[in-house]
Hints:
Oligomer: single chain
Largest sheet: 8 strands, mixed
Shape: globular
Number of domains: 2
CATH architecture of the largest domain: Roll
CATH class of the largest domain: Alpha Beta
Number of strands: 10
CATH superfamily of the largest domain: Mannose-Binding Protein A, subunit A
Structural class: alpha+beta
Amino acid sequence: MSCTDGSYCVVSxxxxxxxGVVRLVDVYESIxxxxxxxxxxxxxxxxxxxxxxxxxxxxxxxxxxxxxREDCRSRGAxxxxxNSKEEQEFVSKINGHGSSWIGLQLQxxxxxxxxxKDKWQWKWVDGSLPNxxxxxxxxxxYPENTPNAxxxxxxxxxxxxxxxxxxxxxxxx
Length: 173
């Protein structure tokens, strides 16, 4: 049997009974779609690094903390949340010697105290409190006007108001 458009045809047993034709071009298009999906997955794997049950992306561009957070969201992720010494070491390794935003932000908490001063608390972008800390020695933990944390070139956490830095996204797998 020949196909009318000049492409090769694969004849199945059902075709012999007049129930349809499977064209080789359709099979080829299916294979090409699989290759494209595999290529996209390969690119994703080159940009993202896996550690335990999460994948991490480190940017090459520099943006503000808020812009970095939005970029992570656009990737279906969030700024990295570091929950253990092992994760800290991994993030420090992929960060290299640069400075990259992490998902820790200083937030004002409302409390009724006699001093009338605002109280502040560090929180991750998911609203959780840090259960592991890796601050650079001698860092004031409750600074004014510098509410965003980053991992510095020495692998320790520091903070800045909002200068441009690279950033690290995390997503669960």
